[in-house]
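lol so apparently i was supposed to do this last week
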Amino acid sequence: MLNYAFRGVERFWFPLRMLSLQSFADINMEFRRMQIVRGLYQVGGDMNGITFDGQDAGYRDGNSYLLEAPEGLVLFDAGCGDTLDQIFANMAYWGFSPDDIKVCVLTHAHFDHAAGAHLLKKRGVKLIAHTNTAEAVAAGDERCCGYLYHKTFTPCEIDQCVEGGERVDVLGVSLDVMHLPGHSMGCTAFLFDWEGKRVCVSGDVIGTLLDGHFGWSGSFDFDKEVYLESLIRFSRIDTDMMLPGHGMIYFHKPRRRVEEAMNNALIEWR
Ligand SMILES: [Fe+2]
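anyway here it is w/ fe (ii) ion bound
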């Protein structure tokens, strides 16, 4: 009981703490960039003030991660589009040019993660996503939830569609594709080995706060039953670092966060 009481306080307190960090980030631009490990960076995401779209901090701009792959830069998720120049500025701090981004991998089609994709494509960046995400991004319809932000999602074509269970070589890095539908039907995690660690870019499959709570459940293509099946499969996977779609990267037994998210889902959805 005490544990649940604490979680209630934490859920209230944590976003407030994030907002105070955001205010500080506005003053001190040095906070708007972060190296995770060698060759891997968080370059976008408004929940921890890496980017900021001028509105409330939180869920308006998903996390974007930059991987310095052997054959070029890979960007995981494109953000909401309005923050693309901030992403480029964060890259410039580490000496990277936006022209060096060769590939952008999308975790799903929601606006805060994929609305910037058409801008990257115009720059010649190759887009990779699950087939279901590709359909949604090409349609630019309500599955992309532009309405949630009172903005229009600009559709575009994905260059390479992938399926769950595939292993794809992306600029010299082997990405294992794990299709985890439920939050949206295209939700996909991408797993790879980097710096001796197993890394998972998880998008919005699990929650982004430290108690493993999952996020928004309002997507047009949200499905509880399918989501639970995905969480069961995901909870069986061990990784060393989980890079979520919002909020903080997790370095200690990320599988436990997935198990907590599954526990929360079982409690709240049945
Ligand atoms: Fe999402």
